[in-house]
Fold these 2 entries.
Entry 1:
Amino acid sequence: MNEITSIFKATHGVMTEEVGVISGELELTTACQEDGSLTLHLTYVGPWPWLFTSGRIC
């Protein structure tokens, strides 16, 4: 599984399954699974729990 992590500022927000739209400085981790699907995990920068985006299975 390959993972890439990046930090970005979401001014208009990103939809998550757990809490709805979040915005601000966010950390995104994208992982490519063995079957070719992508998993996206999103959190605020800092000690926050990981959240799932609405389209986490591609």
Entry 2:
Amino acid sequence: MSPILEGCSMPPVRSTSLATTILITSIVLSACLSKPHSQMETSLDESFPDSVNAFGDGFPDAGAPCRRLGESSATSAYLDHTRTLAGCLSRSDAEALGGEIVGHLDGVWLISIPNERPTP
């Protein structure tokens, strides 16, 4: 035994409890990493500031990262009865919606989308 460790007694480390801890940690971390980046980025609705009056559970479909935007002092200039105003937290999500990007406000990309798509 090393002279430094003489007189010291340490309880034996149980390898099963260490292995269990490592296993649980691995499972938790892999669950976090398995979400696509866009879901992790937008899973918190509080990311949309109150100033844009975001509502719904996704736009254009439930679970999508963008939201419809309602009337507020910040959005009123962008509202039009013939178009839907939507907001996305990333520019790539905004571009994917189609429509016209009309602004960027408090971290939200504003997109104006025609209610009726023109027929070719």
